[in-house]
Design brief:
CATH class: Mainly Beta
Number of helices: 3
Number of domains: 1
Number of strands: 12
Shape: elongated
Mean pLDDT: 82
CATH topology: Jelly Rolls
Radius of gyration: 19 Å
Structural class: alpha+beta
Strand content: 35-45%
Low-confidence stretches: 2-33
Distance between the termini: 31 Å
Oligomer: single chain
CATH superfamily: YjbQ-like
Helix content: 10-25%
Length: about 180
């Protein structure tokens, strides 16, 4: 994944997350904190059709998560033929089973599809993306995504040649004063 914006020496492209200049103080005594907002756009490499575990890639590209004590992490995909979901992160056959199920549930080349100008996989991809959804939200606790033991973020590519995908990542939360 790449972050849209300024070039980094490692050939990754990145956005420098800007901390708000004004700090809003919450609570009293040692509970004071200030609000953090991180709004980068990530761009994935073109992925083959299928369900891809991208949790570690996203965490690596948004290290600012570790600075948030409590908050919400939101990922939104800016496409209509790919989707996001949370599911099994340990056994890769689960992702294969998802692909097999959705290919059977929404087959290509159906005679009733009218939207076919972009190929036989296009309309089924739109339907699959609508079924799966375009975003996931995950709590942040103590600088980590608060996922279940076996949960991971999937980028679901429903096209044979979908191309690069843009993800908008927003992390909102409080971080303690230093």
């Amino acid at each position: 994944m790449k972050r849209a914006g300024v070039c980094r020496p490692s050939s990754h492209v990145g956005v420098t997350a800007a901390w708000p200049s004004s700090r809003s103080r919450g609570g009293t005594g040692s509970c004071q904190s200030h609000r953090t907002q991180i709004p980068p756009t990530l761009i994935s490499a073109a992925l083959p059709r299928g369900f891809h575990l991208v949790t570690e890639l996203i965490e690596r590209e948004v290290p600012e998560i570790t600075e948030i004590e409590v908050g919400v992490f939101h990922v939104f995909i800016k496409h209509t033929s790919a989707s996001l979901t949370l599911n099994e992160n340990a056994d890769p056959t689960a992702r294969d089973d998802f692909e097999a199920y959705f290919n059977q549930a929404v087959p290509e080349n159906e005679p009733y599809f009218l939207h076919t100008a972009e190929g036989p996989d296009d309309m089924p991809a739109h339907i699959k993306a609508s079924m799966m959804g375009s975003s996931v939200s995950i709590p942040i606790t103590a600088g980590r995504l608060n996922l279940g033991t076996w949960q991971g973020i999937y980028l679901c590519e429903h096209r044979d040649h979908g191309g690069r995908r843009r993800l908008v990542v927003t992390a909102l939360g409080d971080r303690p004063f230093d």
